[in-house]
Amino acid sequence: MQYHPVKLYPSKALLPREEQLAWKIAGVAADRVPVEKDVQEMIINRIIDNAAVAIAAINRRPVVSARGMALGHPVRARDGRAGATVFGVRAATRVSPEWAAWANGTAVRELDMHDTFLAADYSHPADNIPPILAVAQHMERSGRDLIRGIATGYEIQINLVRAICLHEHKVDHIAHLCPAAAAGIGTLLGLKQEVIYQAVQQAVHTAITFRQSRKGEISSWKAYAPAHAGKLAVEAVDRCMRGEGAPSPIYEGEDSIIGWVLSGRTVADQKGRAAAYEPVYYEVPLPAPGEPKRGIMDSYTKEHSAEYQSQALIDLAFRMREQIRDFEDIERIVIHTSHHTHYVIGTGANDPQKMDPKASRETLDHSIMYIFAVALQDGRWHHVDSYTPKRASRPDTVRLWHKIETREDPEWTRRYHSRDPNELSFGGRVEIFFKDGTRIEDQLAVANAHPLGARPFARDDYINKFLTLTEGLISAREANRFLADVQDLARIPAGELHALNVALPAGALEEAKPGIF
Fold it and tell me: Whole-prediction pTM value?
């Protein structure tokens, strides 16, 4: 792995493209290094994972709406392209790939239950799969091509997330996803470095959005955001394949992302006085030429349908509840955890919506106070039942929920950002105080399903998750057919990737409300 310094340059510096981050990202994407066996197997796991959570969400309103928009952009055989499939819809129905990326990306993200990587910033790197797969289907590529593209998408996004913090500047994490997906599509199609370079720059330029999508009253846009990034990535690659260029240098330029959105200028600059260009702000790791792309192996999926930073705390609640006889005896609960957890899903966010029984599902799955209370009471977590309005408004739950607070603990913050994988953690320490003056305490660093957890997810767990979440929605024949095809991914020939679609029985899909398309 090589570390690349990324900083702000004045326009007069005329920074050569070979020294630009986007060019180096494009170089990784253009490097035809073989994908190692365990990486291939993990890619298959994540395709299964995506399909599971997408089908489980298939008739939720945001997914229905996104599907309706996609179906308004059909591709037929006479159009000269294969088109891409849409989750839930029979594989013979094909749509334009950017709209398939939109519909499938929304379905994958809706339940907040697929994979995650946390470092300097947040990410759900499996969000790369819908746009890369959609283009692979449309352009009639093979399973091996798809594997290579997905490996690149993961590699680029994860390494950007390791190095560049977006959330401290209130920028949403799709700003790392979009260039990663563009790079992955470039690898998939075997594009030249010059084309991928331009596409990466266009992608990141168009993907700067803000964290209000995950703040206050969180709406369905939380599911749409990564789908939007995937759609933008497909469109960026299309334009650049046609010879179009991009703003450059997009990361290092005087009025670039680093310059005005991230940490490129001093306070004095922002007040309009003379610009001062600091030495180095970021060091981005990227594989050296010929080095395998293994980023996916550092990511991890979710066992529970909630924000990743709640995964270990849900498992901890299950464990601690065994010591509690009566929840009404609890006086208060304090969760000692990392800066991120405290300020994003904890009381440090200062979001009254996180304590509101009438809040949206999207808000509740970003409230560790609500999540911990329900997990403590129920001893289980369900992607539907744990979020129903009836469950959220239960009086005894509301009482317990409002007794919970979070506090930042410097040690948990340090471990959250540790570069040592054996120290890296996303959990916390919980103190439960009782009215009689007694107290119990316990802690958990990583979720049970984490690679270092008590029960790390393996292929059988991904398959079980798929079967559990799709039960009653698809036929056993369709489930078995999909699982057989996806596990033979490397042997799927060119033009046959529609086999990775999962369809519901006729008449089982809800219709979208009418719109423009």
Answer: 0.90
